[in-house]
């Protein structure tokens, strides 16, 4: 198992390195002179001062040298400072990451808790009215854009019916309480979970249908096992691989945040931070977020591979 | 009976021959027409497209400050926005803008993806390695994250958006085409074509690509919906199509602040509903194409 994880890790490292180079080039080649940001406007445009500043910031060095220095600092968790306000990028990204993970994690949990059982039921009653209704529902759920549903939900449930707060993560000027937080969390999490329920239901259904007629399932029934055990232990475990794949594909979104849906609900996560960064051309923030997102995607891939190996021990030896 | 007559003797009656010779394309079309949801989707898309084409550009841009923020009435079917422009006209013209962005971006991404995927799958080896590692890297990011980063550098604008969406979504068709090429290039008919001295380009274009087209069509239909949604998202944030040009996305921008969202719902609800309708319709059609071209159903009827 350790060998397997190590091998997977080694495959992913070059891609990560490639991404850091891309992210670095992307910012290095962006228009605008970073020196201008540090020059006080009242000093005027002084070429000598500009040159000194350039040396001091290390911008006179060739690109590869600058890249290695940046990479070294990034590895120590130093991602620079925000162009506006001067907050440490690592702090801003850290809190955004936490908030996004809370929102997306809740949505994914709801998606899994509802989607997987519904998918199993749908597969067990293939071609019944219930199956038809669930499949249609899943199709609509996958096709509906969540940020537009978010706008509609915010308008109907937040503004008109006043059931939920109209955005944000906590009520201002009220001491922190778990109830208040959950109240803010509920609507965006539910709306985001619709797509996850739909996706997980669809994949669970089709992969259950693939295994449910297998001979080992018949054997399990024939030796007199309870139907519950047959379905959950013998069939479901073998249907897990595609489900794990889908969850693995969803994981990166937890970090990137549902960019636009977060903005709709003014949820202070990675998505909102990125939108702020782009609107204000705050390159260090954009760079930090891209780097964190890419790293997490690769970690998610790694976790998916490890989960495969747990679900199907044969994979470890390939 | 002379041998000549023997050869000309019809072996099948005409109707039998016709049915047997119905090309796979025609069979697929027949199956597609029977797919009720897909035909419903086609109807919606046609209606939305015609409506968008009929939109009155002049009315969509005409500012009338005396009649700003008026609710729907007989003169202004969907009311007016904050500068008194007719929301109905803006919705139609906005549809024209959004649908064009979707269509052009999809074409762009399909062409890039097909060319690169074709090269990777046909030549394999080094080219394949380079292209697929690039695909891995681009795919390591959610598209919207990359799109926002690029906007930060190149700035917003309708043509930039078309190009950027195309440049960031070519990875899916690339993977599809590569997979098809990898398996088709080993087929005997491809070998035969190579034996008679066809150039690589002709083999790829005339013999491999037409057989790889089915999954690409499904991608292309869904690709329009993806592009429309990306445009809507970007423009909603104010980073896409810039006013005064209307688009479904930038009309949603009114809903960014809760107060205007509540005050003038007639301004953002129509484009939101039309966008959802369009995306659903495209998904219906995509589903229909997938069913119609599914090789498992190819030999039925």
Q: What is the radius of gyration of chain A?
A: 25 Å
**Which consecutive residue ranges of chain B, at least 5 long each, have pLDDT under 50?**
none
Shape of chain A: flat
CA-atom Rg of chain B in angstroms: 25 Å
Mean pLDDT of chain B: 85
Number of strands of chain B: 0
User: Mean pLDDT across all residues of chain A, rounded?
Assistant: 85
In short:
By secondary structure, chain A is mainly α. In chain A, 75% of the residues lie in helices and 0% in strands. In chain A, 35% of the residues are buried.
Describe it.
The complex is a heterodimer of chains A (318) and B (301). Chain A is built from 13 helices and no strands. With 318 residues, chain A is mainly α. In chain A, α5 (89-124) packs antiparallel against α6 (129-143), α5 (89-124) runs antiparallel to α10 and α6 crosses α8. Chain A starts with a helix and ends in a 7-residue tail after the last helix. The mean pLDDT of chain A is 85. Chain B is mostly helical. The mean pLDDT of chain B is 85. Chain A binds chain B through residues 14-15, 18-19, 22, 26, 30-31, 139-140, 142-145, 147-148, 151-152, 154-155, 159, 166-167, 252-253, 256, 259-260, 263-264, 274-275, 277-279, 281, 283, 286, 289-290, 293-294, 297-298, and chain B through 133, 136-137, 140-142, 144-146, 148-149, 151-153, 225, 229, 232-233, 236-239, 252, 255-256, 258, 261-262, 265, 268, 272, 275-276, 279-280, 283, 287.
Which SSEs are present, and which pair or pack?
The complex is a heterodimer of chains A (318) and B (301).
Chain A: H1 2-28, H2 34-38, H3 47-57, H4 63-75, H5 89-124, H6 129-143, H7 146-160, H8 178-212, H9 215-222, H10 227-256, H11 259-264, H12 270-279, H13 283-311
Chain B: H1 3-8, H2 14-21, H3 24-34, H4 36-54, H5 57-61, H6 87-123, H7 125-139, H8 143-154, H9 158-168, H10 171-184, H11 188-195, H12 200-208, H13 213-236, H14 248-252, H15 258-263, H16 265-293
